[in-house]
Write a structure and sequence with these properties.
alpha/beta; single chain; about 30% helix; 7 strands; seven-stranded mixed β-sheet; globular; about 150 residues
């Protein structure tokens, strides 16, 4: 299911929070085929929405998300890198991810991440790399809903 010799690239350290740390650990574990270890960085009811034109339906729940994530390896993605672009509080981040095959075909995209306060990813939204404005809007909406209000968890 995974590629044992997959190269994992660290997320740049200058912008980090709980969401970026959880995503980094998820990717590191997932890219060496450690499904259980990767799953430990996902909330049980994680929701992942892919807003790209061919994105499909939302993945809801840890098992559905793991299946979708591990499918990237099955089609040949063996390397990854991530660059945090924006951080909102401790639980929200916008990251530019790039996955690559061993022959250096790359797939860049943007990901809005929300963690649950316990070191696990709770929500993920994926965007085409050119859809930065929409991704930032989503990040700001989540910040207002989850961190900016006095009643936020």
């Amino acid at each position: 299911m995974g590629t044992a010799g997959a190269r994992n690239e660290n997320v740049h350290r200058e912008k980090q929070n709980e969401a970026t740390r959880a995503a980094t650990l998820y990717m590191k574990r997932g890219y060496v085929g450690d499904r259980e270890g990767a799953g430990s960085f996902l909330a049980a009811e994680i929701v992942a929405r892919d807003h790209r034109p061919l994105g499909g339906e939302a993945a809801v729940g840890r098992d559905a998300f793991l299946e979708a994530g591990m499918a990237h390896q099955d089609v040949g993605f063996a390397k990854w890198s991530g660059t945090p672009l924006e951080i909102r509080g401790e639980s929200l981040a916008l990251v530019r991810l790039e996955q690559a095959t061993e022959s250096d075909f790359t797939l860049p995209y943007l990901v809005v991440l929300r963690s649950d306060g316990a070191g696990r990813l709770a929500e993920i939204a994926i965007y085409d790399e050119v859809d930065l404005a929409r991704a930032v809007e989503d990040l700001d909406r989540l910040y207002i809903a989850h961190e900016a209000s006095p009643s936020a968890d």
